[in-house]
Amino acid sequence: MSQRITLVTGASRRIGRAIAEACLTRDERVVAHRRSADSDPEPFCAPVLEWCWDMNDPLPALPEADITDVVLSASLFERGYAWGALGAADGGPGRIEEERERLQRHLRVNLLAPWELVVSLHARRPLRSVVMLLDTYLDRSFAGHSAYQVSRAAGAGMVRALAAELSPCRVNAVAPGTVLPSVRDPAERAEQEEAIAARTVLGRMGSVEDVVEAVLYLRDAPYVTGEILRVDGGRFKV
Ligand SMILES: NC(=O)c1ccc[n+]([C@@H]2O[C@H](COP(=O)([O-])OP(=O)(O)OC[C@H]3O[C@@H](n4cnc5c(N)ncnc54)[C@H](OP(=O)(O)O)[C@@H]3O)[C@@H](O)[C@H]2O)c1
Known about the structure:
Blueprint (H helix, E strand, L loop, with lengths): L4 E5 L4 H12 L3 E6 L14 E4 L16 E4 L19 H33 L4 E5 L12 H21 L3 E7 L9 H13 L9 H13 L7 E4 L7
Parallel strand pairs: 1-2, 1-4, 2-3, 4-5, 5-6, 6-7
This protein binds NADP nicotinamide-adenine-dinucleotide phosphate.
NADP nicotinamide-adenine-dinucleotide phosphate binds next to α1.
């Protein structure tokens, strides 16, 4: 068994889970984070150390394990109001307050909580590497998604700052394009996948495995730090 212990946030499902499983299949140890002790995720392919934290709450006691690497996959993605119409719409001030709270939530879960976790772990025992999941849309704005986008743009800044501040610990990010479509209906899903594929240079949608591979590459690449690696099939290259 390897000495490496990777803490993966948001490990109970989707991409975070796939990252945790990939580490386990390499015979590595994993601390699998999830939001709540009340949730009951499917068992992993090998034993994991479990750790729960709702990132809206203060940081609880850190896991006791000698964590060497951190993968920050947990994130909040919540649709909001288009900012241009906030003041004019019926109930304008109420909506501004609602949107301000949404922005605070995104900054808390997508920026401040990961920052607090990483600096606390590193202060206790220096980390080898940190990989943060961002989003290829981190520097593009879409009406109704600005709270999320601002938190991701700030996340990119944080990755570069942590790389400088925590060296020789390496800090990088993967910024995926959409690899898991949001709709469930098979017909709508196929349509969404086609639309996503058409917007890429490679002409296809990426997979969770593409993201996992990039995360593990950055976690292990000894001379790469402060990088934001887009895994998006060339979304913004044309
Ligand atoms: N899926 C994609 O196509 C895609 C595209 C671009 C970027 N990304 C990025 O890649 C990462 C993983 O994506 P995903 O689709 O797998 O993510 P997801 O399903 O949207 O959510 C990931 C995890 O975030 C955790 N989380 C949310 N709020 C939390 C809170 N307050 N406290 C603690 N945990 C919280 C959830 O934990 P629980 O399950 O325990 O509630 C969930 O498992 C995210 O950072 C996402 O922004 C994904």
